């Protein structure tokens, strides 16, 4: 497999698993687009090990060992991921830390099924989503990585809280509860209520409190868009707007997150792209 084939295989992964991200980052120049595909494939494999692996703990350890080998300068396997990632690491000045922190976040899913506080949820969100923003900064804005660190992490917080709010039912099916107990208790709602999938005013109040936190982080995450090069502003703005629109899709569904998954329509995505183009050119 040559490097172009490897990148195309990574492209297929992002287009299959996240049409939202694929659509947003499709507007990047080719070399940078390929870098995003490789990073996404890395994150996707780590996530799939935890959610779908037959022996996820052993498989995740093997994946970390492979990354250790990669960091030491050797390609662990001649697979699309490692061939593409090796080329991407030669093109862009990546920091290894976010990659390792992402793996730590996957370990959290193996060992932690309940969250007591918002701070715990934000710590988890950094590891599984904030890290992605940090991985992408060397591709999107290599000269402003330090200045954009906090906003990239905030965007990760926002997107992961959105995932949590969209996927309450799916997570329950996996015996995972990411809604922090302190916020449930504040609204007089119990874990038993959640497990019984009680959708009432208490649940909506919990959902909206977390949605407001997500929306605050979306604002922070896009507040420094002017620090990105022109080519990167549209993809970042579009990705944030696509994800933020999920919150309104849930609201339109009457907050039914227990038995159905909220989607942003193609028409909505087209309008978001058009608005993002106008806003990114205006900055």
Automatic annotation (TrEMBL):
Key word Glycoprotein present: no
Gene3D superfamilies named in the record? Farnesyl Diphosphate Synthase
Enumerate the SUPFAM superfamilies for this protein: Terpenoid synthases
Q: Name one GO biological process term.
A: carotenoid biosynthetic process
Q: Keywords assigned by UniProt? A: Carotenoid biosynthesis, Transferase
Please name the pathway: Carotenoid biosynthesis
Q: What class of enzyme is it?
A: transferase
Checking InterPro entries in the record gives: Isoprenoid_synthase_dom_sf, Squ/phyt_synthse, Squalene/phytoene_synthase_CS, Trans_IPPS_bact-type, Trans_IPPS_HH
Q: What is its EC number?
A: 2.5.1.32
Name this polypeptide is given: Phytoene synthase
Q: Which organism is it from?
A: Bacillus selenitireducens (strain ATCC 700615 / DSM 15326 / MLS10)
Print the organism lineage.
Bacteria, Bacillati, Bacillota, Bacilli, Bacillales
């Amino acid at each position: 497999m040559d490097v172009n084939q490897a990148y195309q295989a990574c492209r297929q992964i992002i287009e299959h698993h996240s049409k939202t991200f694929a659509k947003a980052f499709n507007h990047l120049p080719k070399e940078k687009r390929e870098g995003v595909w490789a990073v996404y494939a890395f994150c996707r494999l780590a996530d799939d090990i935890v959610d779908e692996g037959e022996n996820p703990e052993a498989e995740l350890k093997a994946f970390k060992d492979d990354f250790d080998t990669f960091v030491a300068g050797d390609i662990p396997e001649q697979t699309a991921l490692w061939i593409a990632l090796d080329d991407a690491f030669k093109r862009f000045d990546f920091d290894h830390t976010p990659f390792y922190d992402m793996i730590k976040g996957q370990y959290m899913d193996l060992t932690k099924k309940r969250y007591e506080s918002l701070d715990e949820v934000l710590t988890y969100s950094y590891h599984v989503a904030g890290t992605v923003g940090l991985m992408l900064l060397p591709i999107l804005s290599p000269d402003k990585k330090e200045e954009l660190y906090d906003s990239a992490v905030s965007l990760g917080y926002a997107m992961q809280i959105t995932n949590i709010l969209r996927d309450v039912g799916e997570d329950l099916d996996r015996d995972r509860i990411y809604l922090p107990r302190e916020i449930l208790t504040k609204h007089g709602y119990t874990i038993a209520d959640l497990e019984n999938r009680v959708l009432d005013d208490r649940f909506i109040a919990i959902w909206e409190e977390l949605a407001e936190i997500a929306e605050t982080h979306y604002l922070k995450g896009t507040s420094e868009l002017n620090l990105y090069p022109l080519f990167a502003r549209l993809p970042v703005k579009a990705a944030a707007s696509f994800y933020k629109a999920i919150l309104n899709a849930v609201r339109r569904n009457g907050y039914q997150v227990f038995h159905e998954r909220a989607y942003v329509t193609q028409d909505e995505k087209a309008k978001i792209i058009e608005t993002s183009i106008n806003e990114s050119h205006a900055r």
